Amino acid sequence: MPIYDFHCPACGHSFEALVRTSDSTPVCPQCNNALDKLVSAPAPPGKSKAIIASNRRAAARAGHFSNYSKEEQSKLLR
Ligand SMILES: [Zn+2]
User: Fold this and answer.
1) What pLDDT digit, counting tens, does each position of 28-56 carry?
2) How many Å lie between the centroid of ligand 1 and the Cα of residue 27?
3) Domain spans of the chain, in order of start
């Protein structure tokens, strides 16, 4: 079941939803406006990097440094 990104032109609300192909056009959960379907695009590289960085920070807080390269570890532990 594909995940679609939706953007409501009426109220500006953006959200993702799983949509069965048999479903009719989804409506905005905020204002019930009927929406156009947009195929969810893969996260841009910048966003992925930010996600990886935040995961690493979370791991570091938990005391796991295995996500880091040796170089990065030496920076962090300095
Ligand atoms: Zn809306």
Assistant:
1) 889 998 876 655 555 566 677 777 788 77
2) 8
3) 1-40, 45-77
